[in-house]
Amino acid sequence: MNQYNKNQKKKIEYYLFINKFINFIMFDGKKEKASTIFFKSLDLLNTKLNLQYANNFQKQNTFTGLSASYDKNTLQLLFRALKNVMPSVEVRKVRVAGATYLVPAILSKKKQENLAVRWLIESARKRQNTSRYELAKCLSDELFDAIQGQGLARQKRDELHKVAEANRAYIRYKWW
């Protein structure tokens, strides 16, 4: 019974995350178009991963998503991509005695996820503007780069961490 509850919780977590990702992709209330983009990018990511890594147990670990059946490992890799992009700190501007300092602050788990998803989609849109590919292809490429610890979203995270580390001396001005 306990194993059943863990599986149910994992499926609910997948559904909530998929819904959040689709809502961030959504533009002008066109949720069906956003979900099509998301699932198409998952398909492209799945084919790219199957070409790169030969999965011997693909048929055993399938997860029935909202509209199609996906490899459970693909969704786990999607979470790994998100984890590789999630920032752990942010910098906030604090004004003290006429000077403005960038003060590092630790982020909550929800804010980390939101920023990571937002950065992934933003970098996919930038990639789409500079290339001739559609958003689903650019999103799958960005997710694949994020899995490997590369890409524009990962660069943004690394830059934020560098700024926070450079300004760690001003942590004493944190009072919120």
The SS-based structural class is alpha+beta
Considering DSSP H and I runs of 4 or more, what fraction of the residues is helical? 55-70%
Q: Uncertain spans, ≥5 residues at pLDDT below 50? A: 55-60, 62-69
Full CATH superfamily name:
Ribosomal protein S7/S5
Biggest sheet, strands in spatial order? Answer: 1-2
CATH architectural grouping: Orthogonal Bundle
The number of distinct β-strands equals 4
- What amount of the residues lies in strands? 5-15%
Order of helices and strands: HHEEHEEHHH
Q: Mean pLDDT, as a whole number? A: 84
Question: Any idea of the CATH topology?
Answer: Ribosomal Protein S7
Distance between the termini: 43 Å
Number of helical runs?
6
Q: So what's the overall shape?
A: globular
Radius of gyration: 19 Å
- Biggest pleated sheet: 2 strands, antiparallel
Would you write up a description of this structure?
This protein is α+β, with helices and mostly antiparallel strands and 176 residues long. The chain has a single domain (2-173), classed as Ribosomal protein S7/S5 (Ribosomal Protein S7). It has 6 helices and 4 strands. The protein has helices spanning 2-25, 31-52, 72-85, 109-130, 135-147, 152-166; strands at residues 62-64, 69-71, 89-96, 99-106. The strands form 2 sheets. A two-stranded antiparallel sheet has the order 1-2. It has a two-stranded antiparallel sheet with strand order 3-4. Strand 1 (62-64) and strand 2 form a beta hairpin. Helix 4 (109-130) crosses helix 6 (152-166).
